[in-house]
Amino acid sequence: MRVRLAVWLILPIWMVSVPMAMAEDEPAKSPGVLERIGNTAKKVGNKIEQGFTKAGTKLKEKKVGEKIEQKLKKAANKTAEGFKKAGDKIDQKLNH
């Protein structure tokens, strides 16, 4: 999404920097330089969007979110167990 935003932010600067003389030299039947740049930017934006959609679909299929949640729960449980063991050892040393 950031790449697409960057393309759309850079596009106006790029269009302004293109000399207008290049557009005048183009034959009347072919699209102008600015129109070609705009079409190319749209194509690039669509390809980026398709890539993100495809990546999102793969993440859903592989259940990445669920796997991360399981790993975080496991880590939290191990941390809690570690604190409990440390607390028990401290209690044993203080009571003996």
Give a count of the beta strands, DSSP E runs of length 2 or more.
0
Summarize model confidence as the mean pLDDT.
Answer: 81
Stretches where pLDDT is under 50 for at least 5 consecutive residues are none
N- and C-termini, Cα separation: 61 Å
> Helical stretch count?
4
Label the structural class: mainly alpha
Q: What does the overall shape look like? A: rod-shaped
Helix-strand sequence: HHHH
Helix content: over 70%
Percentage beta strand: under 5%
| C-alpha-based Rg, rounded | 29 Å
Largest sheet: none
Which key features would you list for this structure?
86% helix; 96 residues; mainly alpha; single chain
Explain what the structure shows.
- With 96 residues, this protein is mostly helical.
- It is built from four helices and no strands.
- The protein has helices spanning 2-17, 20-25, 33-61, 64-95.
- Helix 1 packs antiparallel against helix 3.
- The N and C termini lie far apart (61 Å).
What is the topological layout?
Elements: H1 2-17, H2 20-25, H3 33-61, H4 64-95
Helix pairs in contact: 1-3
Briefly say what this structure is.
The chain is mainly alpha-helical and 96 residues long. It has helices at 2-17, 20-25, 33-61, 64-95.
